Amino acid sequence: MEVTSFISALIVGLIIGALGRLVVPGKQHLPIWLTLLLGIVAAVVGGWIATLFTTFWLFVLIVQVLVAAGGVVLVDGLYSRRR
């Protein structure tokens, strides 16, 4: 992976994390740094899942946001239960 690809994946991941948090209704108990970290992971995982079907950029973006929203819901449930 080139440096520019890595930097763009980080930037897209931060945006995906923010979008994933916005999609989930209600109050989340996650700190923002954890949401952004989830976004980076969701961008990679969602991109990999979406490219199994197609490389159309809008479909990839939608899958990434859905994976990020699922991650926010899952980790928020674990995080709030622990506190």
UniProtKB/TrEMBL annotation:
InterPro entries assigned: Transgly_assoc
Domain of life: Bacteria
Recorded GO CC terms: plasma membrane
Membrane spanning stretches: 6-24, 31-50, 56-79
Keywords: Cell membrane, Membrane, Transmembrane, Transmembrane helix
Keyword match Zinc: no
Key word Metal-binding present: no
Main location: membrane
Membrane topology: Multi-pass membrane protein
Localization per record: Cell membrane
Stated family: Belongs to the UPF0410 family.
Name used for this protein in its record: Putative membrane protein YeaQ/YmgE (Transglycosylase-associated protein family)
